Amino acid sequence: MSKAKLTNIETDSWELADGEVKKEENPAAFFIPSLQSRQALQPDDKVNLI
C-alpha cells in the first residue's frame, strides 16, 4: 500500500494537520483511534479531518 500524500499549503492552498503530531503535542485533549483502527478504514467510513 502506498503512503498517502499530505496536502501542502504552498501547492494546494490548504493542508491537513497530522493527527499523530497533534496527539503528541496535547495527549489529554486530542484523541485519535489506534493505528489498527485507522488502517481498517474503508471507503464511505466517516472521519474527522483537521
Description:
It is a single chain. This protein has helices at 9-12, 19-25, 35-39. The chain has 50 residues and is an all-alpha fold. It has a domain at 9-39. The longest helix is centred in the middle third of the chain and has 7 residues, at 19-25. The radius of gyration is 13 Å and the shape is globular. It starts with 8 loop residues before the first helix and ends in an 11-residue tail after the last helix.
Short summary of the structure?
The chain has 50 residues and is mainly alpha-helical. It contains three helices and no strands. The mean pLDDT is 88.
Shape: globular
What is the assembly state of the chains in this entry? single chain
Strand content: under 5%
Helix content: 25-40%
In DSSP terms, counting alpha (H) and pi (I) runs of 4 or more, how many helices? 3
Q: Compute the average pLDDT.
A: 88
Q: State the major sheet.
A: none
Give the distance, in angstroms, between the N- and C-terminal Cα atoms.
23 Å
Pick out the low-confidence regions: none
| Main structural class | mainly alpha
Order of helices and strands: HHH
